Amino acid sequence: MSTSDAEAQRRVVNRLRRASGQLTALIGAIESGAPCRDVITQLSAVSSALDRAGFAIVSTAMRECLADPERPTSDDGTTAEELERLFLMLA
């Protein structure tokens, strides 16, 4: 794993940890009967954090493909067609 790949992985893990904390707070807010506005705001934050993590993962894989267009797959075996499908799942 290159330094940039390790850095990208670290950023994704940090985003997911943040999302995990936000999700825990969301569950607590619902259980405590927080106002709808607070619940929806927290839900939006969790959703955005997960989306950003997903886009970062796909972006890293796409950069791998662009770095060596002759290779039919990324380092983890994902093909360009699969990357496109995964990207569209997030959109």
Question: Which short descriptors sum up this protein?
Answer:
single chain; 91 residues; mainly alpha; Methane Monooxygenase Hydroxylase, Chain G, domain 1; 3 helices
Description:
With 91 residues, this protein is an all-alpha fold. The protein has a single domain (3-90), classed as Metal-sensitive repressor, helix protomer (Methane Monooxygenase Hydroxylase, Chain G, domain 1). The chain has 3 helices and no strands. It has helices at residues 3-31, 36-67, 80-90. The model has no long low-confidence stretch (mean pLDDT 85).
Order of helical and strand elements: HHH
Give the count of helical stretches: 3
How many structural domains can be distinguished in the coordinates?
1
Strand content: under 5%
Question: Describe the biggest sheet?
Answer: none
CA(first)-CA(last) distance: 28 Å
So what's the overall shape?
elongated
Helix content: over 70%
Overall mean pLDDT = 85
Instruction: Give the C-alpha Rg.
Output: 17 Å
**CATH homologous superfamily name?**
Metal-sensitive repressor, helix protomer
- Quantity of strands, as a count: 0
CATH top level?
Mainly Alpha
| Structural classification | mainly alpha
Q: How is the CATH topology named?
A: Methane Monooxygenase Hydroxylase, Chain G, domain 1
CATH architecture name: Up-down Bundle
Which regions are unreliable across 5 or more consecutive residues at pLDDT < 50? none
